[in-house]
Amino acid sequence: MIDLEVPRKFRPLVGQAHQVAENVLRPISRKYDTAEHERPVELDMLASLIDGMNESGELGGTGAAGVRRSANGAAAEGNRNGSNLSTVLSVIEMCWGDVGLLLSIPGQGLGNSAIASVADDEQLERYGGRWAAMAITEPEAGSDSAAIRTTAVLEGDEYVLNGEKIYVTAGERAELVVVWASLDRSQGRAAIKSFVVERSNPGMILERLEHKLGIRASDTAAFRLENCRIPKDALLGSPDIDSRKSFAGAMQTFDNTRPLVAAMAVGVTRAALEHTRAKLAEAGVVIDPRKSAWTQSAAAARLQQLEADYEAARLLTLQAAWMADNGKPNSLQASMAKAKAGRTGVDVALGCIELCGATGYGEDELLEKWARDAKILDIFEGTQQIQLLIVARQLLGKTSAELR
Ligand SMILES: Cc1cc2nc3c(=O)[nH]c(=O)nc-3n(C[C@H](O)[C@H](O)[C@H](O)COP(=O)(O)OP(=O)(O)OC[C@H]3O[C@@H](n4cnc5c(N)ncnc54)[C@H](O)[C@@H]3O)c2cc1C
Asked: What element of type H or E holds 225?
């Protein structure tokens, strides 16, 4: 089997992330699955620890906040394993522990990644170290993010935001929310920009928290933006409406965040596979990678098939992150990784339940929970179908207007 070794310099990071996943996240995994909407206070200490390690340079990027490209996007000289790869590796380990809890660690929001991707140096300084959620989705705009209706109107030194945002991960607990809004709806997608809003802003009104199938440890909020005033310099990137660049700038965030969500799926997938392999071993099933599918038990052959899918998802994810570290355009690979890993997570978790039978379905074990958690990773940051659409557009050289 083709495999990649973890780069030597990242091995301590991966080891530490695994320790955290095993000793901090797994023990409270079921607790916060049951106690939905309760804040996992155990994670506050962990967040301080991660901050400290990031500041001391001990970690090369542990969560979503670690991702940033070089300013000019130019290819680095030689082969660089940087913060995208280290972040993906640590996210895989942490999600082997618990994906909902990873999303609940203060400071590790998808909004942090957006800030890291598009903020200028002064904004990075201003918002650095604070927990940021990401609010794109609206009641009338999910997959088609260009259809958002939230508006941002410049009045003096302030933008005034009005609209509705739903399904905001960490929207209740984060300190900041990166909100997508249009400067001028008549100019279409080019006028869409992202704005950093303080969660305490009185114009950002929390409407409700969702009850969910999975990742129940993570809060998912719906907001109303009502004459929400924010300083002019809270707009990320350039305020100019440039039909060639503007939306591309906002979309660039996805090139960094999709490999992260793929990494989450890879982590959950590995958890399910390891658990199932152990259960099969307990039941006396011999799994021999040198034997072909028809010369060993059906259970062993099925597990190997699931493991092969896992490897493919993992390699695509590492490739997308490595390309970002090396200044290579990775939209295609980021979408391929997200599509493959999202689908694999769901298929493998359900396949493992099948192999484990009744024990896989019960709440005494975590397998049924991983199957519920996995589904969201095939939905947010662009659904399975949308990733496939993006891949098709890129391969066929079609625009979003030509292939929709
Ligand atoms: C738990 C949770 C957390 C979330 N967190 C966030 C967050 O932090 N920030 C945020 O902004 N959003 C978040 N979302 C929203 C998420 O990104 C959207 O749900 C997702 O983009 C899909 O949008 P939709 O639900 O409106 O589905 P729709 O866009 O209505 O799609 C419905 C179905 O149609 C398919 N479909 C749509 N268009 C096409 C097409 N052109 N071709 C083929 N199939 C298509 C989709 O794949 C899907 O299967 C979250 C959602 C959930 C459930």
From this structure: strand 220-231
- Whole-model pTM above 0.85? yes
Q: List, in order, residues 6 or more apart from 314 with CB less than 8 Å away.
A: 92, 266, 270, 341
The residue assigned the tokens 């900041």 is 176
Cα separation, 318 vs 334, whole angstroms: 10
User: Is pLDDT at 66 greater than 50 in this prediction?
Assistant: no
Token look-up 């927990």 returns 131
**How far does the centroid of ligand 1 lie from the alpha carbon of residue 278, in Å?**
35
CA dihedral 310, 314, 320, 326 (to 10 degrees): -160
pLDDT at 71 exceeding the cut of 50:
no
The 10s digit of each residue's pLDDT in 219-237 is 999 999 999 999 999 999 8
Q: Per this entry, what is the length of the chain?
A: 404
> To 10 degrees, the CA torsion angle through 180, 255, 220, 107?
-100
How many whole angstroms separate alpha carbon 62 and alpha carbon 108? Answer: 8
Which residue has better confidence, 45 or 60?
45
Q: In sequence order, what are the residues at sequence separation of 6 or more whose Cβ sits closer than 8 angstroms to the Cβ of residue 141?
A: 147, 148, 149
What's the pLDDT at 62? 44
Known active-site residue 122: no
Residue 294 has pLDDT above 90, yes or no: no
Closest C-alpha to 170, from 110, 114, 128, 113: 110
Tokens of 372: 């519920």
Distance 211 CA to ligand 1 centre (A): 16
The answer on pLDDT for 72 being more than 60 is no
Chain centroid to Cα 26, Å, comes to: 19
Q: Which of 379, 390, 391, 393 to mutate to test the pocket of ligand 1 (most atoms within 8 A of CB)?
A: 379
Task: Tell me how far apart the alpha carbons of residues 345 and 373 are, in angstroms, rounded to a whole number.
Answer: 9
CA 210 to ligand 1: nearest atom? 1
Which residue is listed with tokens 């979503």?
A: 64
* 3-state secondary structure at position 310: helix
Residues with CB under 6 A from ligand 1: 110, 133-137, 142-143, 167-169, 212, 220, 376, 379-380, 383, 385-386, 389, 404
- Smallest CA-to-CA distance from 274 within 26, 1, 2, 16 is with 26
